[in-house]
Amino acid sequence: MDRLIQNNRAIIVPIDFSITSENALMHAADHAHVFKNDIVMLHIIEESYLSSLFGSNQNYKNDMIKTGVELKLEELKTKILSKYPKLKIDYFVYTGKVYKAIVEVSEKMNCDCIIMGTNGAEGIEHIVGSTSSRVMSYADVPVIIVNEFPKKGKYEKIILPIDQTIESKQKVTWAIHIAKKYNSEVHIICEVEDDEFLRNRIKATIYQVKNILEQNNVKCLIYELGNKEYPGRLGDDTLKYADEISADLILIMTHQEKGFTEYIFGSEAQHIVNRVKRVPVMCIHPKETGFKYEGTDGFY
């Protein structure tokens, strides 16, 4: 791939050749096949790392590293096409700071979403947990985090945690879009509040969400995380519930702080991303226009 081309059907998959980044690639391929998306594999070469290996010999280091990387990307492309021969898949080698490069490419391409692994190895394999968090904080498009390879290849059970923020309800749009494609069951979960006013407020919200889902013919149920069975923080309780029902996807939101250009994770959302192992997590950015009910084009 010689240059960036705008493609709002593309799923960007950062590749560092770690197991988790390859898990993310296979996960992306499964869903690109269903949603008719394209895939763009993205490998980032960090100048600071290369300089430590090759000094000032710019041409030598760039040609040598790029050639080796492209050969490995071709191998991954062949592997994906052996499973999905009609899938359109390309790759791009980019230079820069990893998380900044991922966000920059996603903006230039106007892509559909980013699917990436949560950690990586040392040296040239750069996709680490902190990188994932930064990408989710800065990217305007949805970001799906994958650690272990999801065995089902589809989202049968989706967890939709709801809190008292207005932005929390915006996740319903994506839940509807995904659930309709996979005939998923959406689990609306919330913490049980001790304060009666807060308890009634959150109850009204979750039943409103349930009504919206049912109006869109999406199967759903409500589960309140009681203090006896779920005494921990919301992030831990969400992950516990996800394991108990063998969930296939968790939807969370970022929260934007006034005065900052980037999106900042709420503490519980960050906790989920840091600790999740088996279940993919989709992170969505709140929109200033408020809650949308309609579906969206592309994968998400």
In short:
By secondary structure, the chain is of the alpha/beta class. Helix content is 42%, strand content 20%. Helix 2 crosses helix 3 and helix 8 crosses helix 9.
Mean pLDDT across all residues, rounded?
80
Tell me the series of helices and strands, N- to C-terminal.
Answer: EHEHHEHEHEEHEHEHEEEHE
Tally of helical segments: 9
Q: CATH first level of the largest domain: which class?
A: Alpha Beta
Total number of strands = 12
Radius of gyration: 20 Å
Strand order of the largest sheet: 3-2-1-4-5-12-9-6-7-8
As for the number of domains, it is 2
Poorly predicted runs are: 120-128, 256-265, 289-300
Kindly report how far apart the N and C termini lie. Answer: 24 Å
Architecture per CATH nomenclature, i.e. the level-2 architecture of the largest domain? 3-Layer(aba) Sandwich
- The CATH topology of the largest domain, please? Rossmann fold
- CATH homologous superfamily classification of the largest domain: HUPs
Which bin fits the share of residues in helices?
A: 40-55%
Structural class: alpha/beta
The major pleated sheet works out as: 10 strands, mixed
Q: Describe the global form.
A: elongated
Strand content is: 15-25%
Summarize the structure in words:
The chain is α/β, with parallel strands linked by helices and 300 residues long. The protein folds into 2 domains: 10-146, Rossmann fold (3-Layer(aba) Sandwich); 157-284, Rossmann fold (3-Layer(aba) Sandwich). 42% of the residues lie in helices and 20% in strands. The chain contains 9 helices and 12 strands. It has helices spanning 19-35, 47-54, 58-83, 98-109, 129-138, 171-182, 196-215, 234-244, 267-275; strands spanning 10-14, 38-45, 89-95, 113-117, 143-146, 157-161, 185-191, 219-225, 249-253, 255-256, 263-264, 281-284. It has a 10-stranded mixed β-sheet with strand order 3-2-1-4-5-12-9-6-7-8, sandwiched between helices. A two-stranded antiparallel sheet has the order 10-11. Strand 10 and strand 11 form a beta hairpin. Helix 4 runs parallel beside helix 5 (129-138) and helix 8 packs across helix 9 (267-275). The protein is elongated.
